[in-house]
């Protein structure tokens, strides 16, 4: 099987099952499926090291929200997805409302597909400073929240985890929520899936630039990661397209013919080598693909995620109160 890039646990599980067709399900993996009207929610629990090794993801809980088509163009659906996200986050947060929370928008604001994190960070309802400058404006029911967008190593020259660790040591939050762009294995999941986990995140994973992990082990506090796949590897698209063409030709060819035999005998490894060779020679390296309406979609997704986070970290406030505060 072609070595494809994906940050999604659902896809990692699917890939493993495809390559191990004899296994009915994975030991150490529990899957729970739910739905909220047309919004589906799938929880994958990686329960032990055996399960983690099989799918190549750390042990922990991964919750995937599949959002309806054209969500980015429908304000009502955006609000519904935000509420589902808030509910999912609420299951994972479980931190006293009086405790500080830090929201981190990972990514490069100069590159649209990687700008999801920074755009979410600027829409977060920040309240930590009000305890000092405007104590009369808030009460004990409002959680102290701060937000940063630390940029990327290529811009700052500093590892992202080092920046976050410095902020954590200074502000002492009990919870860190990181938002980042991811990569998908399937085109259908691009901008259509939100993954939430309690295992941390690797900045730059979506574009293949993995940095030191931002997780509880490195920061010393609970870390929740939220990601949306905004790109897909060009090699993946080429591989899937060729497979579809081959399957179609086999289906419509007469068995026993030389052409049919040739199609059935195509070596998967040789096909992968040829795809990589052609794409690398034509593009001088890796190539990732993103939809043409990415500007609009990133703006919409950032609103969905920011609203979901705001409602989850401020459980004593409804969306109307939060919107009034944001002004």
Automatic annotation (TrEMBL):
Propeptide: 1-7
One MF annotation (Gene Ontology) recorded for this entry: metalloendopeptidase activity
Modification comment: Autoproteolytically processed. The inactive tetrameric zymogen termed p46 autoprocesses to a smaller form termed p41, which is active only during spore germination.
Keywords of the record: Hydrolase, Protease, Zymogen
The keyword NAD is annotated on this UniProt entry: no
Reactions this protein catalyses: Endopeptidase action with P4 Glu or Asp, P1 preferably Glu > Asp, P1' hydrophobic and P2' Ala
Function, as annotated: Initiates the rapid degradation of small, acid-soluble proteins during spore germination.
Similarity annotation: Belongs to the peptidase A25 family.
Quaternary assembly: Homotetramer.
Name of the protein this chain belongs to: Germination protease
Species assigned in the record: Clostridium saccharoperbutylacetonicum N1-4(HMT)
């Amino acid at each position: 099987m072609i070595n494809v890039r994906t940050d999604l646990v659902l896809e990692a599980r699917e890939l493993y099952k495809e390559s191990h067709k004899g296994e009915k399900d994975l030991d150490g993996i529990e899957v729970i499926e739910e739905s909220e009207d047309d919004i589906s929610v799938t929880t994958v629990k990686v329960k032990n090291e055996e399960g983690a090794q099989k799918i190549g993801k750390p042990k922990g809980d991964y919750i995937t929200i599949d959002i309806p088509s054209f969500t980015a163009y429908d304000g009502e659906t955006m609000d519904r997805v935000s509420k589902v996200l808030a509910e999912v986050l609420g299951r994972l947060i479980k931190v006293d409302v009086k405790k500080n929370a830090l929201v981190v928008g990972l990514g490069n604001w100069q590159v649209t597909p990687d700008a999801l994190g920074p755009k979410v960070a600027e829409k977060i309802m920040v309240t930590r400073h009000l305890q000092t400058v405007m104590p009369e404006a808030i009460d004990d029911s409002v959680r102290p929240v701060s937000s940063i967008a630390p940029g990327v190593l290529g811009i700052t020259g500093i590892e992202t985890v080092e920046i976050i660790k410095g902020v954590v040591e200074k502000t002492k939050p009990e919870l860190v929520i990181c938002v980042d762009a991811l990569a998908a294995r399937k085109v259908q999941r691009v901008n259509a899936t939100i993954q939430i986990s309690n295992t941390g995140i690797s900045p730059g994973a979506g574009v293949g630039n993995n940095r030191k992990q931002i997780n509880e082990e490195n920061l010393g506090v609970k870390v929740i990661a939220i990601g949306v796949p905004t790109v897909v590897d060009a090699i993946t698209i080429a591989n899937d397209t060729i497979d579809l063409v081959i399957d179609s030709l086999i289906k419509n060819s007469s068995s026993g013919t030389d052409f049919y035999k040739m199609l059935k005998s195509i070596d998967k490894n040789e096909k992968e080598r040829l795809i990589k060779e052609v794409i690398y020679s034509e593009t001088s390296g890796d190539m990732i693909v993103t939809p043409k309406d990415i500007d609009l979609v990133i703006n919409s997704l950032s609103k969905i995620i920011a609203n979901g986070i705001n409602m989850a970290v401020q459980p004593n406030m409804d969306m109307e109160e939060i919107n009034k505060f944001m002004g």
